[in-house]
Amino acid sequence: MRYNPGVTKRAQAQPAPARSPARPAGDGIDDRELVARAQKGDRVAFRSLFERYSRRAYSLAFGVVRNADDALDVVQDAFIKAHRHLDKFEGQASFYTWLYRIVMNLAIDHLRKNRRQKVVDFSEGTLDEGGLGEDSLIPRIIGGNPGRALLDREIRDRIAAALDELSDNHRAVLVMRELEGLSYEEMAQVMGCSKGTIMSRLFHARRNMQKRLVDLYDRPANLANGPGDQPGEEDRRGIESEAEDPQS
Amino acid sequence: MRRDMRRDMRPDMRRMRRVHTSVLAIAALAVLIGFTHAARADVQVSCNVVEIEGSSSDAPSLDPELKSLEKKLKKPPFSSWNTFKRLGAQTVTLSMMKAASVPLVHGKAELLLRDVTAPGSKKRRLSLGLLLDDADGKRVVDTKVSVDLGDWFMLARSMKSNRGQVVALTCKLL
Amino acid sequence: MSKVTDPDLMMLADGELDAADASALERAAGANGVVKVAAVREVGDLVRGHLELATDEAEDRLAGLWTLVERRLDGGEVEAPERAKSDREPSASAGGVWSRFLRWVDGHRGHLLTGALSAGAVAALAFVLRAEPRVEIRTVEVPVKGSATGPDVGSGGSDPIVLTATPPSIESLEVTGGTGTLFTIEDDDGGSETAVIWVTPDDVLEGI
Fold first, then answer.
1. Binary contact (C61, A72; C-beta < 8 A)
2. CB–CB of C153/C159 below 8 Å?
3. ipTM exceeding 0.85?
4. Domain residue ranges in chain C
5. Contact A42, C73 (CB under 8 A)
6. How many Cα atoms sit within 13 Å of C15 on the Cβ side?
7. C72-88: per-residue pLDDT in tens?
8. Which DSSP state fits A177?
9. How close A229 comes to chain B (CA, Å)?
10. C134, exposed or middle or buried, with CB in 10 Å at 0-12, 13-18, 19+?
11. Stated pTM of the model
12. Dihedrals phi, psi of A33, to nearest 5 degrees
């Protein structure tokens, strides 16, 4: 298993660390150089870009469309589209930034084409200053090492199911945030909406994920951590805490 | 004798009646099929063309004048937007094979009535040609559609900043 | 500091606050606030981990994806997956009008008047015989007019005949610089469908 908690640390002010796949031996070429060569018709250069970013593009696509076959189609279409429009790439942002926008657009388009039952709610709004009443974050964590938690098949399936149940917009922002480490402002630009709408969607996405995983919070720490692991100080506080936040 | 003759004739008469009915049915069928393909030159339809702008915003809303389309706009593929504004509505009279231009806020549409089928039946069907150009005059869509009179048909396209244009139309016979 | 809200804690977890505001919020957050921040981050870790593992599982298929991309770049066709045929698709087999009519009758015997055909029913059948468009068949109760000789048709009674509503169809579609997708929205009353042609331009990216 390649899951490495050290790599998948949460994004903070910095963008998410690049998780490029291994480059071909001797390939220390900058993306800009590869793009410039590909724009001149160098297929090998474009293939290098594909090999660098297809995995990351797949993670993003799969996070949104939730189906492996469809995610592969999205990735394939994204690279075709990127190749077709390479002449329009101006180089002001990185190639991957440009590529993931294509991936996101195609993934969201794919959902649009395939979802038949989803009905929009005109009452979806933004977070207001006054808080969200009963719809607040749960002050609990599963605790321990998330990597170990994911070794548990049941927990993995629960997370997958919880993601599946999110609305498309909620899931898209959550995946963008957690995989790409985009700021609220950047996500607002990608999705063509306001920062407030992004915050609302992200908040509801996380709250809904928590709701669907709430029974996992009540498990004894050793199930999540595995024998020999001890929960940290922060984890113990989460496990022992019982009252909802009275809002200090 | 007469009774015997009638008895003898009954199977023949039933057979003849069946043949007669079948012939009638086939004839009626042929006439109707002929009708379904006939286009009457004097037919005119009146089409209501509504231009809508869709977007996502902080305050989801639906223009009150779009109430009749609310249920459709809440469903995919429109459900990625949450704000719908009616940009304009026009009534256009279409005559057979005469194009009519419809100016829009975000471009222009051209409609052509190509055919009206089954004029004698309850539900008539229109064959329409539709062209849509964007605000720069660039052709976006060229399509030919068949739709029942009274039903809605919509053309939608994504624009920048997650906005979109929807051109919705419904026609009735004049 | 004013009251700490959950959105504030979310912004803290996401690094959206400047250093001074972040410190002030951490001090004001309280025990539950700190756990909530940890919870937000934990959800992120779990989502990332899940997606990484899912991508691991697709590694083999991703490795073969370049072949498909290259084929398309070279102008070759990639086989589309076989689509399941709709049960309502009209038979494409050859045959005259009459044989198609008989096949249709066999398939929908339960919906038809037995005995002779009324004028209304003949009109309905005429729609069915066309190869396009796809025809929706509904059985409704309406009075039967005109002569009828079949034993099941009573005079002046209300008998079921077949009516048809025809969904919209696209005869041709050309989209310049983009892709067109056809949707149909079924109305809630099931009485009609609205066709939507959705155009996605190839270039929806703003200059970056």
1. yes
2. yes
3. no
4. 1-83, 97-165, 168-208
5. no
6. 13
7. 998 754 444 333 334 43
8. I
9. 44
10. middle
11. 0.51
12. -65, -45
Q: What are phi and psi of A35, to 5 degrees?
A: -65, -45
Chain A partners within 8 Å of B55 (Cβ)? 192
Q: Which of A91-100, A109-118, B87-96, C141-150: highest mean pLDDT? A: B87-96
Compute the count of residue pairs across chains A and B with CB atoms less than 8 Å apart.
Answer: 58
Neighbours of A11 (CB within 10 A): 21
CA distance C159 to chain A (A): 36
Provide residues of B within 8 Å CB-CB of chain C: 17, 21, 25-26, 28-29, 32-33, 36, 71-72, 75-78, 118, 120-123, 125, 127, 132, 138-148, 150-158, 160-161
* Higher local confidence (pLDDT), C30 or A114: C30
Domain covering A31-114: architecture: Orthogonal Bundle (1.10)
Name the minimum distance, in Å, from the CA of B108 to any CA of chain C: 15
**Distance from the Cα of residue A154 to its chain's centroid:** 21
Percent of chain A whose pLDDT exceeds 70: 66
Q: Per the structure block, which two tokens stand in for A227?
A: 């024998």
What is the nearest CA distance from B26 to chain A, expressed in angstroms? 42
**From the candidates A120, A167, A190, which should be mutated to test the interface with B, based on the most B CB atoms within 10 A?**
A120
- Tokens (6 digits) for C208: 């970056």
Does the beta-carbon distance from A192 to B161 stay under 8 Å?
A: yes
pLDDT at B102 over 90: yes
Cα angle at B76 between B72 and B81, to 5 degrees?
85
Residues of chain A with Cβ-Cβ distance to B61 below 8 Å are 122
CA distance B169 to B88: 12
Phi-psi category of residue A133: left, alpha or beta, with phi > 0 → left and psi -120 to 50 → alpha:
left
- Please name the residue of chain A whose CA is at the shortest distance from the CA of residue B73: A120
| CATH class of the region A146-240 | mainly alpha
Mutate which: B53, B69, B79, B162, vs A, most A CBs within 10 A: B79
Compute the CA torsion angle C15, C17, C21, C23 (nearest 10 deg): 10
Structural contact between residues A61 and A74, judged by C-beta atoms closer than 8 angstroms = yes
Are B144 and C168 an interchain contact pair (Cβ–Cβ within 8 Å)? no
Q: Give C160-197 pLDDT, tens digit per residue.
A: 333 445 677 888 888 887 777 778 887 766 667 788 88
User: Is C47 an interface residue toward A (CB < 8 Å)?
Assistant: yes
Give yes or no for A19 touching B (CB within 8 A): no
- Residue A187: per-residue pLDDT: 87
Question: Measured between alpha carbons, how far is A121 from B10 in angstroms, rounded to an integer?
Answer: 70
Residue A126 confidence class, pLDDT cut points 50, 70, 90: low
DSSP state of C153: -
What is the rounded average pLDDT for all residues in chain A? 74
Chain A residues near residue B85 by CB distance under 8 angstroms: none
C3 touches chain A (CB under 8 A): yes
How far apart CA C35 and CA B117 sit, in angstroms, is 68
Secondary structure (DSSP) of A165-226: HS-HHHHHHHHIIIII---HHHHHHHHTS-HHHHHHHHHHHHHHHHHHTHHHHTS-HHHHH-
CA distance B157 to C136: 28
